[in-house]
Amino acid sequence: MRDTRESRLLLILLVAVAFALITVDIRGGDDSPLNGPRSAAASVFGPVESGVSRLVSPVADGLHSLRDSGSQADRIRALEQQNELLRQQLSSSDLVKSRDGQLSKLLGLAGAGQYTIKVAQVVAIGSSQNFSWTITIDIGSNDGIQRDQTVINGDGLVGRVTTVAPTTATVLLAVDPRFTVGARLEGSGEVGFGTGEGDAPMRVELLNGHAAAKVGDRLVTFGSENDKPFVPGVPFGTITQIVNTPGELTKTVLVQPFVSFTKLDLVGVVVQPPATDPRFAVLPPKQAPPAPSPTPTPSATATPSGTAKKKR
Fold first, then answer.
1. CB 300, CB 311: distance < 8 Å
2. How far apart are CA 150 and CA 242, in angstroms?
3. Collapsing DSSP states into helix, strand and coil, what is residue 190?
4. How many CA atoms lie within 13 A of 99 on its CB side?
5. Nearest-CA neighbor of 274 among 264, 282, 263?
6. Residue 42 pLDDT > 90, yes or no?
7. Per-residue pLDDT tens digits for 189-230
8. 258 with 235: CB under 8 angstroms?
9. Please, is 102 exposed, middle or buried when counting C-beta atoms within 10 Å of its C-beta (0-12, 13-18, 19+)?
10. Which SS3 state, helix, strand or coil, does residue 301 take?
């Protein structure tokens, strides 16, 4: 519409009419003469408005979803990170508890034998040379570690130090076929030499072919000259089998080590031997065998005549 004098007058007239209707409607209240036309308009345009709303609502919901999807993805990522953090904390807590237990046992064994030790952690298993049964620990010459020192854990003999670097050391495990250690039999004190057999139980040759040895007897280290490579009295293992070797001057027994070599974590290097041989003082008390189950006795039932009759 062009801006002419007539159009301006029409606009002023429409505005004046609108104000007049509003004034009449307000003053009329519930009796307003415009209530009728308003109801009629609502009847006509209400269904149209509802239909348009139904058509538009899915589109609006989709737009809201698109708008909120970014924040929902952020919340999901945050929850996933929190879950991962909780898992790590739980794993770390379990590890701390496990190491606390290992350290407690290690210090208990060292205290019983009066061994002065340096605690170390296993950082590698195996050797790059000959695939021997070895471990690498995280202490070395800077910590006072030397070749041919005894290595223990809370269960007993682990091995001996063979190679030393400034911050690490290599330990030959007692199960290595090249490993040999002097052993003393609990009780009788019979001595012999044990050698590693890999995954199999260790083999011990008792020097006395008539030594009184039986399954279940335990052994400790005999000790070496100047306590290198072995200090005395370290728990060694339990006899699992007596090997029949008639005519031999020695007696062969198979020994299951106390140490679980596939689960090594914390170990102790003995840097100062005990003042005296502890012999068997480091061995834990023997557990009593389980009591035999009582033999059931035959029950009796009463016969009609009143006499007792055993069940067959």
1. yes
2. 28
3. coil
4. 14
5. 282
6. no
7. 999 999 999 989 999 999 999 999 999 999 999 999 999 999
8. yes
9. buried
10. strand
Residue 304 region by backbone torsions, left for phi larger than 0, else alpha for psi between -120 and 50, else beta: alpha
- Three-state SS string over 221-250 comes to ECCCHHHCCCCCCCEEEEEEEEECCCCCCC
Higher pLDDT, 31 or 104: 104
CB of 282 within 8 A of CB of 270?
Answer: no
Q: Give the CA count within 13 Å in the CB-facing half-sphere of 46.
A: 6
Note if the pTM is more than 0.85.
Answer: no
Q: What is the pLDDT of residues 242-301, one digit of tens each?
A: 998 777 889 999 999 999 999 999 999 999 999 999 999 999 888 766 566 665 555 544
Pseudo-torsion of CA 281, 275, 140, 150, nearest 10°? Answer: -40
Which residue shows structure tokens 């239909």? 51
Number of H helices, E strands in the chain: 2, 14
Which DSSP helix (H) or strand (E) runs through 216? Answer: none
Amino acid identity of 110? A
Domains and CATH numbers, the chain: 114-272 (2.40.10.340)
Tell me if 239 sits within 8 A of 217, measured CB to CB: yes
Q: With contact defined as beta carbons under 8 Å apart, do 152 and 234 qualify? A: yes
Residues 6+ apart with CB under 8 A from 242: 213, 214, 215, 251, 252, 253
